[in-house]
Amino acid sequence: MSYISADVVVIGAGIVGLSSAYYIKKNHPEKNVLVVDEAHTFGQGNTGKSAAGFRDLFTSDINFKLSNSSIKFYSDTQKNGIDLGMEFVGYLFLLDNENSNIKYLMDLAKKTQVRELKVSDLEKYEFLQTKLPSEVKSMLNLSDIDLAFIGENCGIIEPELVAEHYYNLAVNEGVQFKFDSKVKPLKLDAKDKLDFPGEPFIWQEYILRSIETETDHIRFDDLVLASDVWTTELLDPTGIDSHVRPKKRQIFQLSGGPVDKILSSWKENRENIFPFTILPAHGVYIRPAPRYHSLWIGCADDYNRDFSLVDDPQAEDDFYSYNIAQVLGSYLPSIGDAKITGKWAGYYSYNTIDMTPYIFRELNIIVATGTSGSGIMKADSIGRVVEALFSNKDETELYNGAVIKTSSLGLRNRSVQHENLVL
Ligand SMILES: Cc1cc2nc3c(=O)[nH]c(=O)nc-3n(C[C@H](O)[C@H](O)[C@H](O)COP(=O)(O)OP(=O)(O)OC[C@H]3O[C@@H](n4cnc5c(N)ncnc54)[C@H](O)[C@@H]3O)c2cc1C
After folding, report:
1. Of the candidates 341, 164, 343, 119, which has an alpha carbon nearest to the alpha carbon of residue 249?
2. pLDDT greater than 90 at residue 270
3. Stretch 254-263: mean pLDDT, rounded?
4. 118 in any annotated domain
5. 239 and 252 assigned to the same domain
6. Which pLDDT score, from 0 to 100, does residue 338 have?
7. Same domain, yes or no, for 230 and 255?
8. pLDDT per residue over 9-18, tens digit each?
9. How many angstroms separate the CA atoms of 293 and 303, rounded?
10. Ligand 1 centroid vs 45 CA: distance in angstroms?
């Protein structure tokens, strides 16, 4: 066992841990900050599994602020010459007249860039079927496309490039990294130890003094838990609730002739790339991946998708063939039968109550989790909130100048509305 110490330890070198470590070190250069991850390098957890779309289309004010500011930070970074693979291809919501998202998108049009497209604007794309045969509609519970909205401050980004950027920023500030180090579940200690068996007793003050891996005993003053869906197993022994549940999410990559045609024939955005598209029903979405000449297909299925968590989740061919392909093929017949050229699976860490991140402090532990499927697009702001909490600042100033109450994402004084646009 080797004995290491740092002022601040961050568990998790995903996008949230990287951004948090960077902002803590940047604002407290005198502190030793150490990031520990079980993977061999950064960004190997759900960050690397992400569809990595970005949007500021959120119904809750706080989610709007978190994403809108992070998008601005990423976009300015890219304008300054660092490629993050960011393309403003837009988020296209294909909708029927009854769709509840219409109201949300019309409200959002008052505060960000959202444009309505008529069905006639879509009918010129022959790969897109807006009117479905009635037997298809009744069998698959689908509807015609009656209208569409496109969010224009939205698009795609490369998560590994964003992670690499924060890693470089953090290393330049002097943050240290320890990879290939799986942290064992946390054990609380007594602040003033008496060295009696059975400590800590209820009448002692609790603290988390250290963590352990197979080879290291790491001592610290403060711990940041940025371990996403794995936060629960780390925290459970302490009696502190993580408040998140894992949900498996899968991506199926399609490539080939019809895919190329769809990718390149879109004319409604300045990039001339087919947008990130949400089909009218059943949570199926299409993420353009022009760098890979592919479309990535995902689905935010809910019922019957349990909350289990396994070490190496696999994408399920049958889930694609018997669930997604029918819906996809109804609206885009040319790719309904396209070959899958890649697939992977990861997890959303769902805050099942309000679908908004949890960033709270308990003892000397700061927990940042519950990104609910939108952690890449909010990570810059999340890192700033973690730093504000670390520094006991009542308010967090985000990159774009927006200000939020630091405690609003916490537990005791939580002040967020339920998020309705979770994809
Ligand atoms: C299929 C899919 C599609 C998605 N699509 C989008 C999208 O379009 N846009 C978007 O913004 N977000 C999307 N997300 C969500 C996004 O990927 C997450 O919100 C984000 O990656 C969370 O970052 P994180 O740093 O909290 O977690 P992670 O990247 O998972 O990082 C957590 C880290 O903690 C480490 N760790 C865990 N336990 C331990 C331990 N005991 N010891 C040491 N290290 C440990 C892990 O190795 C990991 O590196 C998607 C996710 C998935 C799975």
Report:
1. 343
2. no
3. 93
4. yes
5. no
6. 84
7. no
8. 999 999 999 9
9. 32
10. 5
Confidence bin at 394 (pLDDT 50/70/90):
very high
* 164 lies in the same domain as 189: yes
Residue 68 and residue 398: Cα distance in Å, rounded? 10
The answer, yes or no, to whether residue 251 has pLDDT greater than 90, is yes
Same domain, 235 and 252: no
Q: How many CB atoms lie within 10 A of CB 301?
A: 17
Q: Are residues 164 and 142 in the same domain?
A: no
Residue nearest to atom 4 of ligand 1 (CA): 50
Q: Which residues line ligand 1 (CB under 6 A)?
A: 11-17, 36-39, 44-47, 49-53, 182-183, 226-228, 230, 234, 249, 251, 298, 346-348, 371, 373-377
Instruction: State mean pLDDT over 94-108.
Output: 96
Q: Region 278-304: what's the mean pLDDT? A: 96
pLDDT of res. 271: 83
Name the domain count of the chain: 2
CATH at 264: 3.30.9.10
The CATH number for 375's domain is: 3.50.50.60
CA–centroid distance, 172 to ligand 1, in Å, is 23
Measured in angstroms, how far is the CA atom of residue 106 from the centroid of ligand 1? 31
26 and 165 housed in the same domain: yes
Do 375 and 271 lie in one domain? The reply is no
Q: 189: which strand partners?
A: 207
Closest CA to 387 of 77, 14, 22, 36: 22
Strand-by-strand arrangement of the 91-95 sheet: 114-118, 147-151, 91-95, 276-278, 284-289, 294-299, 245-255, 340-350
Domain boundary among 331, 348, 365: 348
Q: Rounded mean pLDDT of 354-372?
A: 98
The pLDDT value recorded for residue 269 is: 81
Span from the CA of 205 to the centroid of ligand 1 (angstroms): 33
Q: Is residue 418 part of a domain?
A: no
Span from the CA of 228 to the centroid of ligand 1 (angstroms): 6
**Which structure tokens are listed for 61?**
């004010």
Identify the domain containing residue 171 by its residue range: 2-50+160-244+354-409
Pocket test for ligand 1, best of 50, 285, 422 (most atoms within 8 A of CB): 50
Structure tokens at 73: 């930070």
Ligand 1, pocket-test mutation among 44, 47, 248, most atoms within 8 A of CB: 47
Whether residue 323 is found in the same domain as residue 262: yes
pLDDT, position 13: 98
Query: How buried is residue 399: exposed, middle or buried, by Cβ count under 10 Å (0-12/13-18/19+)?
Result: middle
Task: Give the ligand 1 atom nearest the CA of 347.
Answer: 53
pLDDT digits (tens, 9 = 90+) for 129-162: 999 999 999 999 999 999 999 999 999 999 999 9
